[in-house]
Amino acid sequence: MDIPSRIVLRRPDDWHVHLRDGAMLEAVLPSTARLFARAIVMPNLRPPVTTTKAAVAYRERILAALPPGLSFTPLMTAYLTDSTDPQDLKQGFEAGVFTAVKLYPANATTNSAAGVRELDAITPVLETMQAIDLPLLIHGEVTDPEVDVFDREAVFIERHLVPLRRRFPSLRVVLEHITTEQAVDYVRAAHQSGEQTLAATITPHHLHLNRNAMFEGGLRTDFYCLPVVKRERHRRALVAAATGGEPCFFLGTDSAPHPRSAKETSCGCAGIFNAAHALESYAAIFEQQGALDRLEGFASEHGPRFYRLPLNSETVTLVRQPQVVPQSLTLSDRRADALDAAEAPRLFHAGETLAWRVAVDG
Ligand code: NCD
Ligand code: ZN
Questions:
Q1: Crossing angle for the helix pair 86-94 and 52-65, nearest 10 degrees?
Q2: Active-site residues: which are they?
Q3: CATH code of residue 143
């Protein structure tokens, strides 16, 4: 296939992003908002966003941090805990505050200590969500220390996701940031059997990296995220899923910035900051697969269809114009005083040349 010199796409959405709060929010929001029309905003702040009231306040802080001239809609999520009030979720959903609810198994990842300890304990919440058709977004890893860290997603599917979906057959579920062929197979099988209640997001980094990359030439802290990157076999299954045109797979960057000092230390945080070149990063994979014609479906169509939201009408253009990715996020003058420049998150693909560049059309 001839490679075009430009591709015009319907403006994409990011169905999984960490925008953080305070100075970090100020620093990272422009990267997401300049490209994506909407984003599902993760609620794992400290303290987490567990109520409608907290989500309304967080949404206001996001909108206040938005640079003038950018149109961007944050889609808010509630952080499930053992004591989530179903009535509050329902009210938040009916008031247009919540688009979805996020399940973190307790201690599975960054700021998940307040997550759900026992799935059975949240039955009334899941019943309510199923009844009002409020989607459940799942960080799909078991936290059982006996289970090898590379197996935690596959074990979660067997132990928890299969039984949960049997108990709540019409609850719509997104398995977030999938990393294994088991997840791909499970989501695809549900889709192929006609179920429209299950989908998965796929990150750019899980499409580019296998677990060797994390250790190449030394310990690459900037490639550490959760769920941790897996074997090459799994990466290939993810690439096939993302680029294959199936509507049950769509874009979710899981862009997860951390201050440099929190990541490059003896017990560094999980999370990769990829928002600054997210579409270019996905485009590289679609190009390798000869599937650039399917990028728009993955980035801009499958997600809204699953969430039952309108497709965006604006467009963005990807221009084939190589760019070298800087080492870390450049802070604009307005934000320079908010976040210490030494703490600016390192960029995914730092130092690499990406073949595409985004031009936002408006
Ligand atoms: C995320 C974070 O830093 O908030 N980290 C990550 O590695 N993906 C949490 C998450 O999505 O698991
Ligand atoms: Zn995440």
A1: 40
A2: 254
A3: 3.20.20.140
Res 109: pLDDT: 84
Looking from the CA of residue 270, the nearest atom of ligand 1 is 7
Ligand showing the shortest atom-to-Cα distance for residue 139: 1
Domain assignment present for residue 70? The answer is yes
Which structure tokens are listed for 188?
A: 């695809």
Structural domain contains residue 149:
yes
Ligand found nearest the CA of 206:
1
- Closest residue by CA, ligand 1 atom 11: 254
Total domain count, the chain: 1
Residue 82, burial from CB neighbour count under 10 angstroms (0-12, 13-18, 19+): middle
Residue 161 lies in a domain: yes
Residues 6+ apart with CB under 8 A from 73: 37, 38, 39
Counting ligand 1 atoms within 8 A of each CB, the residue from 25, 40, 44, 152 with the most, and so the one to mutate, is 44
Distance, CA of 219 to chain centre: 24
Q: What is the mean pLDDT of each run of 10 residues along the chain (362 residues)?
A: 90 98 95 98 97 98 96 98 97 98 92 89 96 98 96 98 98 98 98 98 99 97 97 98 98 98 95 98 98 98 98 97 95 68 94 94 60
Q: What is the per-residue pLDDT across 301-336, written as a single tens digit (0 to 9) for each? A: 999 999 999 999 999 999 999 999 999 998 775 555
Provide residues with CB under 6 Å of ligand 1. Answer: 18, 44, 109-111, 139, 225-226, 254, 256, 269-271
Parent domain of 16: 12-308
